[in-house]
Amino acid sequence: MQFSRLRLNGFKSFVDPTDLVIADGLTGVVGPNGCGKSNLLEALRWVMGENRPTAMRGGGMEDVIFAGAASRPARNFAEVTLALDNTDRTAPAAFNDADALDVVRRITRDAGSAYKLNGRDVRARDVQMLFADASTGAHSPALVRQGQIAELINAKPQRRRRILEEAAGISGLYQRRHEAELK
Ligand code: ATP
Ligand code: MG
After folding, report:
1. 85 vs 48: CA distance, rounded Å
2. Range of the domain at 96
3. Which end of the chain is less crowded, N or C, counting CB atoms within 10 A of the terminal residue's CB?
4. Reduced to 3 states, what is the DSSP secondary structure of residue 12?
5. Quick one: which residues bind ATP (predicted)?
């Protein structure tokens, strides 16, 4: 399973629909300060189910919606689509019946987030599990934020263990065990 495209609409500074092809291998994003490089990585983490406003550098989840500029009014929603190539059929079993997967997350002011997987309504948990099992989740060490290395060094052992579990691809199992214990 590979990322193939990231589409943003009304997400942070990306007010106009923006389509990004993610090719094989290493992708570099270059641009002047404040042009939106970190916003792109946040969009990627957000569509995979990130729910901590602090990870989005905001006070609340609605802060990801384009807030307006001198010449443009604010938007009422933000939407990010992540297209995945699954021609190698390595997606987790529950999602493994298609060559391509389109994950869409949309947030509307006062109405919260909704997710779709190939056009079907799904829960946040379904999307989080898809990526947790594929070891690329919203909290995955594959995405390294500015300042995150220092955070990792200073982290408490329990937090560091979570990061290692996600890297090992077992955080989905951990979540399922937690849910089973609650039942
Ligand atoms: P640097 O090189 O300094 O790290 P960067 O390319 O990573 O910069 P970002 O932090 O991604 O830049 O983008 C910051 C820009 O995004 C700022 O201009 C900020 O005003 C804008 N921005 C953030 N959230 C919103 C929002 N909700 N609505 C509109 N603009 C936003
Ligand atoms: Mg940045």
Report:
1. 15
2. 2-182
3. C
4. coil
5. 32-39
Two structure tokens written together for 81? 């689509």
Q: Point out the ligand nearest to the CA of residue 74.
A: 1
Residue list for the binding site: 32-39
Report yes or no: 41 and 110 within 8 Å, Cβ to Cβ: no
Q: Whose CA is nearest to atom 17 of ligand 1?
A: 34
pTM, two decimals, is 0.84
CATH number at residue 115: 3.40.50.300
Ligand 1, residues 11, 12, 42, 71: which to mutate, most atoms within 8 A of Cβ? 12
Candidates 16, 38, 62: which one to mutate for ligand 1, based on the most atoms within 8 Å of Cβ?
A: 38
Supply the ipTM of this predicted assembly.
0.98
In this structure, what token pair is assigned to residue 84? Answer: 């995945």
Ligand 2 mean position to 79 CA, how many Å? 21
The residues near 126 (Cβ < 8 Å, ≥ 6 apart) are: 94, 115, 117
Nearest to 96, CA basis, from 106, 109, 86, 104: 86
Residues ≥6 apart with Cβ < 8 Å to 152? 160, 163
